[in-house]
Design goal:
Elements: H1 2-23, H2 26-43, H3 53-72, H4 91-94, H5 98-110, H6 115-123, H7 129-136, H8 140-160
Helix pairs in contact: 1-2, 1-3, 2-3, 3-7, 6-8, 7-8
Length: 161
C-alpha cells in the first residue's frame, strides 16, 4: 500500500495534466485521475516494467477516458467563431490567449488520431517526445514528426478561418 501512496504523491499531477488534456474538463480529469490510481492499486502486480511508470499510469487514464467517452458519446455542437487573431504567431504562444486556445481546442477536437492526442500530450500534458513515443509504442522520432504534422494541420486550419 505504501508503494501506491508514493506513486500517487509523485505522479498524481502528471496523470491529472494528461487527463485534463484528454477531457478538457477539470472535474472529469480529477475523477479519471482518482480512478486511474484505484485501478493501478488493483493491478500493480501486472506492471511489467517495460516502460516508465508514468507512461503506464497515463495509459490506464487513456483507457478510462476512452471507455467513459464510448459510454456517454457527448458532443457539444458549438460553432467555431468567425473571427480569429493573427495566426502567424506560433501555436505555443497562441495558447496564452484564452479565445485562441478555445479555437485550437475546437480544431483539435475535429483532428484525426494520432495527431490530436500527440499534440495534446506535448502541449497540454507537457510530456516529452520520448514519453509520447512510449505511450504509442513508437519511437521518439515518430512522436516528433507526428507532432510537427499536427502543428502544421492546426496552422492550416487557423489560416483558413
Amino acid at each position: 500500500m505504501d508503494y501506491i501512496e508514493e506513486l500517487y504523491k509523485e505522479y498524481f499531477h502528471d496523470v491529472y495534466l494528461y487527463a485534463r488534456t484528454m477531457t478538457a474538463d477539470e472535474n472529469t480529469a480529477e475523477e479519471v485521475t482518482q480512478e486511474t490510481f484505484f485501478k493501478a492499486m488493483k493491478s500493480v502486480n501486472k506492471f511489467r516494467g517495460d516502460c516508465d511508470i508514468r507512461v503506464w499510469l497515463c495509459q490506464i487514464a487513456k483507457n478510462l477516458i476512452f471507455s467513459n467517452h464510448k459510454k456517454s458519446a457527448r458532443f457539444t455542437g458549438e460553432e467555431i467563431p468567425d473571427t480569429l487573431t493573427d495566426s502567424s504567431i506560433s501555436i505555443e504562444n497562441s495558447l496564452e490567449d484564452t479565445q485562441q486556445t478555445m479555437i485550437i481546442h475546437r480544431i483539435l477536437h475535429s483532428m484525426a488520431e494520432p495527431y490530436k492526442e500527440v499534440f495534446s500530450l506535448r502541449i497540454f500534458g507537457e510530456l516529452s517526445f520520448k514519453q509520447i513515443g512510449e505511450l504509442f509504442g513508437k519511437t521518439e522520432s515518430w512522436a516528433r514528426v507526428t507532432f510537427h504534422r499536427a502543428k502544421l494541420k492546426i496552422i492550416d486550419e487557423l489560416e483558413e478561418q
